[in-house]
Design a protein that fits this description.
11 strands, 3-stranded antiparallel beta sheet, 12% strand, alpha+beta, 6-stranded antiparallel beta sheet, Transferase(Phosphotransferase), domain 1, Phosphorylase Kinase, domain 1, 3 domains
């Protein structure tokens, strides 16, 4: 930033310099050497500024070299131009131009842009402060005309010196203040042993950040739940209990929860594994409906993840495309990961079918089971099977069975409307796979698969089972890596990142 600011300043000045050189009247003011040095300085600043990009080497030696280019070379050019103008003005007009403004500009740009300790800044700024005084002293000692001007106006040298000292002291104090604020901001972005890097999205209960553990240097995702957003200490207590329960899940296809805790101000957070890849919502919206073999491949892994949870008496209650991730893990592609296990029990919003908030009805309207929609009975494992059926429907067709503008209509449809077979939207869907989806979507839980393992066995018996291989997954990700690794975070947040991380929504 500092380099490009300097480039902009000297580019504007170069236009004036070139105009004076080619069309100026005073021949004595024309110096081809100065114009050439000015052009070279612009080229140097522009080139180094362009090369100093966020992905470049940030070794301290390189940055110090850039600092010399950004401030040392302009300082040297400023000395050359002021030396030329001082001697010219002394001969032509019997006076000096005040040399301070150019140096003050360098001082304050340095103080504003360069992260520094105040001690080191004081050294650099002191050199910039002394430069115009040293130049005038040199002219006083080497040029008779300059000697006469300074000798007859000693207060001029004292005034310039006083201004430089005052402005330099203010700049050093500014560096100290900025450094304190930067340190406070740094600590504000810490959670225990975790350093927050950037925001990845926000939900109704909190925010998700990309973070790194200080000692292990391992990337991870942190969900932060602010006390003021939770609104009730019992809510945070429930989150803490459920994170503790979820951390017992160890299956490859369940999200790993590394840690959780509270900060001094009552902020609750939990730490999850980093998942490069795409969630199913992004995957379908960007690339369209998935082939049957790939759908079975992902669903089969979801069955394994849910089987572990169901065997421990845990019900997900919020299975939806945004909570299923197609990740790259351990050298394998299309590794399905189930997120947000038992942590969120949102209520339907009247604003958006996809929005969820804390409340009485558990689940997302587009993907909830009839018993969740009616609230007449406590959801069990068969409720998760219904949601998996809608997930399969979405992957095969690119849409959900019931798509209404108002969430209440979606909820009613789950309880009372018949599901349109997915083959009416995509005719190529195999009959055996469609039969599995339709059985999952039965209104009566007794008509569905009674366990997730029964559904897994049915998927294994499909003709398309095994047609999506690891080599197919590698080929797909290789061909679509550039697009697939820049997903949009779901719903509320819109930043773009090179990779998505596991996200637990509120």
């Amino acid at each position: 930033m500092a380099t490009f600011v300097m480039f902009g300043i000297f580019a504007v000045y170069f236009v004036w310099h070139a105009y004076e050189f080619f069309w100026g009247i005073n021949v004595a003011e024309k110096s081809p050497i100065l114009l050439s040095v000015h052009a070279g300085l612009l080229l140097l600043l522009g080139t180094t500024g362009f090369l100093l990009c966020p992905r470049c080497d940030f070794r301290k030696g390189l940055l110090r070299s850039q600092e010399i280019v950004t401030f040392g070379m302009p300082a040297l050019f400023l000395l050359m131009t002021q030396h030329h103008s001082m001697q010219l003005c002394a001969r032509e007009y019997g006076m000096f131009q005040n040399p301070a403004p150019g140096w003050l500009l360098l001082i304050f740009i340095y103080a504003l842009f360069i992260p520094n300790t105040w001690q080191r800044a004081a050294v650099v700024i002191s050199m910039l402060m002394v430069a115009p005084i040293g130049l005038m002293t040199y002219e006083y000692a080497t040029d008779q005309m300059c000697y006469d001007i300074i000798y007859t106006n000693p207060e001029m040298l004292a005034e310039i010196g006083l201004k430089m000292v005052i402005c330099g002291a203010v700049a050093v104090f500014g560096v100290y203040t900025i450094n304190v604020l930067r340190t406070e901001a740094f600590h504000a972005k810490q959670l225990g042993q975790y350093r927050l890097s950037r925001s990845l999205g926000a939900g109704g209960m909190g925010e998700v950040y990309l973070a790194h553990h200080y000692l292990m240097k391992r990337p991870c995702a942190i969900k932060i739940i602010r006390p003021e957003k939770a609104g009730d200490s019992n809510v945070l207590a429930r989150f803490e209990r459920e994170v503790h329960a979820s951390s017992k899940l160890s299956h490859w296809n369940n999200i790993d929860i590394y840690d959780y805790g509270r900060t001094e101000d009552g902020t609750f957070y939990y730490v999850m594994e980093y998942l490069p890849g795409l969630n199913v919502s992004d995957l379908v919206h960007r690339f369209g409906a998935l082939p049957p073999g790939r759908v079975i491949h992902l669903l089969r892994q979801m069955c394994d993840a849910l089987n572990e949870a169901h065997s421990q008496g845990m019900i997900h209650r919020d299975i939806k495309p945004a909570n299923v991730f197609a990740a790259k893990r351990g050298g394998f592609y299309d590794v399905a990961k189930l997120l947000d296990f038992g942590l969120a029990k949102p209520i339907a919003s009247t604003e958006d079918s996809n929005l969820t908030q804390e409340g009485m009805i558990t689940g997302s309207p587009l993907f909830m089971s009839p018993e969740q929609a009616s609230g007449e009975s406590e959801p069990d494992a068969r409720s998760d099977i219904y949601s998996v059926g809608i997930l399969a429907y979405f992957m095969l067709t690119g849409r959900t069975p019931f798509e209404y503008d108002r969430p209440i209509k979606v909820i009613i449809a789950h309880a009372h409307e018949a599901v349109v077979p997915p083959s009416e939207h995509v005719a190529s869907i195999p009959h055996d796979l469609e039969a599995i989806v339709m059985r999952c979507l039965a209104k009566d839980p007794d008509d569905r698969y009674q366990s997730i393992l029964d559904m897994a066995a049915a998927l294994d018996a499909c003709e398309s089972s095994g047609t999506w291989t690891q080599s197919d997954a590698v080929q797909w990700w290789t061909e679509n890596e550039t697009i697939a690794e820049c997903p949009q975070p779901e719903e509320e947040a819109q930043p773009t990142d090179e990779t998505r991380v596991a996200e637990i929504r509120g």
